[in-house]
Amino acid sequence: MLVALTNAGISRVEEACRAHVAKGFTFLEALNAKERVALADLLRKLLVSLEGKA
Who contacts 28 (Cβ-Cβ below 8 Å, separation ≥6)? Predict the structure, then answer.
């Protein structure tokens, strides 16, 4: 069985993704450049550890 989104469904997903990314940028505005680098490093470390458990 093949399931596909309609054009309206695709538009809604794209809209939700744009809103999600915008909210992420809003959250990051609270951090300075050094803090953003530290956060990225920590998130990378967590991701690598999770990939090994998958």
Answer: 36, 39
Type of residue found at 28: L
Encode pLDDT of 12-21 as tens digits.
Answer: 999 999 999 9
Query: Could you give the CA distance from residue 17 to residue 25 in angstroms, rounded to a whole number?
Result: 13
Q: Give me the residue label for tokens 């054009």.
A: 7
Percent of the chain whose predicted confidence (pLDDT) is above 90 = 89
- For the record, the structure tokens of 6 come out as 């309609």
Which residue intervals of the chain are DSSP H helices? 7-28, 33-51
Contact 35, 43 (CB under 8 A): no
